[in-house]
Amino acid sequence: MLVSLPLPRFKPLTMSMEEALSQAGTGPFQWIVLGVCGLANAADAVEILSVGLLGTAAEHDLNLTPKRTGALDACIFVGMFLGGLSWGFIGDVIGRKRSLLVALAVNAVFGALSAASTSLWQLMVLRLLAGLGVGGSMPVVFSLMSEFCPPSSRGKFMAMLASFWMVGSLYSASMGWMLLPTAGWRAFLLVASLPAAICCVLMAALVPESPRYLSIMGRGVEAGQVLLRISRVNGTQLPEDFALPAFHHRDQDILAHKTAFHTDASGHVHADALPLSYNAVAGAGCGGASAKGGALRRFRLGAFETFERAVGVLGALLTPPLRTYTLPLAVAWVGLCGGWYCTVLWVPRYFKDRGAKEASVYAQTFAVALANLPGNLASIWLVDRLGRRLTACVCMAGACVCALLFAAAPAQGVWPLLAACVFNGVSVGGWNSLDMISAELYPTSLRSSGFGLLNALGRVASFITTYAAGNLLEMALWAPLMMAAVLLAVGSVAMLSLPEPAGKPLEDSFCQEDKDHEGLFSGSFSGSASSSRHGTYGEGSGSATHFLSEEDGLAGRGVGGSSAAISGEGGFGNRKEQAAEKVALLAASCIGRG
Length: 594
Hints:
This protein is mainly α and 594 residues long. Helices cover 69% and strands 5% of the residues. The chain contains 25 helices and 7 strands. The strands form 3 sheets. The protein has a 3-stranded mixed sheet with strand order 1-2-5. Strands 3-4 form a two-stranded antiparallel ribbon. A hairpin with an 8-residue loop joins strand 6 (554-555) and strand 7. Helix 1 (17-24) runs parallel beside helix 10 (220-234), helix 2 (28-57) runs antiparallel to helix 3 (66-93) and helix 15 runs parallel beside helix 21 (447-473). The chain is globular, with a radius of gyration of 27 Å.
């Protein structure tokens, strides 16, 4: 007599995000992402550094005095401040890819329209609008690149991404050298907008959404598809069946003000449930807008939710433990942005006032931009050997010394050019390591927002010091350089209070409950890989598992009963093998009972 037996169930290999990224490996996929994100970083450099050349080239057409030039230079930083705040926040809400596409489009469109300006005020407004895109893309670019790399290669790729700033500065300087004396400043601005436009197209075609972002937003199946794509492009192979842990991230409730939180004595953040009356009042605040319909009510609901999340984001960034990162990083950003921009953007003016001819000004500006090359090469090596924190500290201190030497350099000879080149070459190491550590210290849920806030604070410093430098230049050529030296020294000291993230996995949440959930799955792949694939997978837990098969494209056998399906390749043969395997196991079981 045959006895009905349950079919054996397959136990998927549960992998954490870090394990899946490491298994997918480093290869052509990361190089493609580096090229596209690097072009975005270069496009930002072009738009920013073209301002310094523009002030010299358009001096007669727009009747620019040092004060009016300072106001023009400052406009792009106002836009970058607003863009950094808004797009950093948007990047954590709608995703890295979509927010970056919009930022690049804004940069390209308004950068190109600047070429049609007929007055100083038109040019200032358009440069401000272009600055929105510039400030918006920087936080998202570094967040996106960091989230595609395993810890072993993240430092190298992040340093190379930051080095693309040099590509943009060389492009800006060379185009200025070739076009400004002959074709004029309008043609130069048009050409300066091309990198952002090209990058926007490449980003849409080649780069997917960050798998880390998809995972924390509860879109684990899509995250798994991205990981499979990384594996295919890199020529590696994820396990035949792998599962991504999926659970509701409590930090999203904290950021949306659906849950209160407290910090314990050890500095860990814990989520608490808010009273039901709070949620009722919050919903009533918008009058049930979405249910009743109406464009105005839906707008009010969206505005209310956006404001709630913005308050939640700011509160999380300024509350322990993240506050211990935010405050020193803010001081470092203010010091480096203020000290660097008030020097570099006025380099053409320094050379001109020291007696250089117009063609020589552009040639010397190109040489200063080229000085980034040795600094970039050194920083790629230093950020993993010396660490991000000490590299930034040492480079900012070195730039401080170089600014003082620039101020004291004789007006004649090669000394001013040499001092400016060394200043730029040393300070670029500070930029690269500061960009990296700003993206790596924050969790995925706040990475773009935290970077955007720091970027915005840096732009405020850039705005103030760039405008102040225009006034100080009327007093003495060395006065802005002394201000830069003080700012760089303060930023260097601030870096010493930060932890070192080199070689460590990125965090996805700042909430301890989420970290505990992640810890349940961390390392489970290595334990599962050595055991049999077959077995019961049954005890329920509070979590779900997004299960993916690289061959048959199945998803959904998991701990919490979660089930989904995604499309895959070559599934039919594998299903037949699995069915035959199950029948054989069932027959063996029945024979054993006989």
